[in-house]
Predict the 3D structure of the following.
Amino acid sequence: MIEHEVRTRKSAEDFPIEEHLAYKIAKVAADPVEVPAETTEMIINRIIDNASVAVASVGRRPVTSARVIAQAHPHAAESEGNGANIFGVDGTYSAEWAALANGTAVRELDYHDTFLAAEYSHPGDNIPPILAVAQHKGLDGKALIRGIATGYEIQVNLVKGICLHEHKIDHVAHLGPSVAAGIGTMLELDVDTIYQAIGQALHTTTATRQSRKGLISSWKAYAPSFAGKMAIEAVDRAMRGEGAPAPIWEGEDGFIAWMLHSPERTYTVPLPADGEPKRAILDTYTKEHSAEYQSQAPIDLARRMKATLEEAGRETKDIESIVLHTSHHTHYVIGTGANDPQKMDPNASRETLDHSIMYIFAVALEDGGWHHVDSYAPERANRPETVELWHKISTVEDPEWTRRYHSEDPNEKAFGAKAVITFTDGTVIEDEMAVADAHPLGARPFAREQYINKFRILAKGIVSEEEQERFLNAVQNLENLTDLSELNVRVTEEHLASIPATPKGVF
């Protein structure tokens, strides 16, 4: 890996295009290096993972709305290309709108993969737009693998090098460029075209973090899918010769100078050298539980502490307080450090509750587990004993947990917490967990078997067993797949018929 220093440059400064971060990323995207076998295997796992959470969310209102909007943009038979597929249904549709629908379905339950470093990310968000373009262009599985490998590589390395949330910029600002780069790889575009597409994608996908603050709405699911749609359109324009603002990161009125810290800040972004294989997907991890990633280990910790309390003959009604000692990120994003009263409100939206570690820990401690639907049900959130316990929970930042969160040593990097439970009689029970059970270093790391099991669990009653088997056989043969429409999972007609209609919109 080569570490590239990125800083603001004055307009009058001699700054050749080859030194622009967008150009360096474009060079990585255009590199014809082979994809390692282990990267390919993990890409297959993540396509399965995305399909799992997409079918599980197919009946939810935000996903239904996105699907109906996309279906209003069918692929025109007389136009070039094949069109793309929408999760759950038959037919071919305009690729950018299919990407919006599928990306929303993947993101809705907050249940797919994650990578956390200087910034947050869900790099599986790269897959829907890259796959939509691959289907539209009639590409094969090998081309798709190459595109996805690049998407992960670029997003993960931007996340390692550039913090966005510190300056209240939403993390999808790293996604637009990574999708554009991945599509560029897949279409075998030249460096100059990819460079322009990356610049346009960043310029059009920068937004504030308010989508993940306070009363969190369904836009949280749309934000990455919208970024993917914008990236597709950016590539299309760049292929037609249209340019982008430049230098997009380093310009005097550019991203670093005005959206991030200041013209004085220098960022360091690692990127593969020429001929270096793309392995960044191997640094990422998925979720066993449908909740924000920094709550994954606390959910498993609560599950373990429930057993501890039962063995000690203790009941949650006798708890005086619970303090979760954790990282800066967890405390300020999903903990009491966020100062969001909505995180303590039993009538808050699902999107808000899955960003409240206080609510999540209370339910997981009471139930000894987590369910992607039941744990968020209004009647569950309004249970009096749950509300009482929930409001006894607080978080504090522990410098050691923050240090481990940012550690570059994978054996030390952690996203967990220490829970200190104090009872009304003064008794204290505490325990800690560094990584979730499903993490590569956890008690039960996810491998192909676990990804398939997750798919079967979430698809049950929604996708026929025959369709489940067809999809799993196709995706596991991805390297030899010539028809990428086989990666679309259709839900049963009965399930589709049971989904409530959404209000009419413009389309």
Summary: The chain has two domains: 2-283, 293-433.
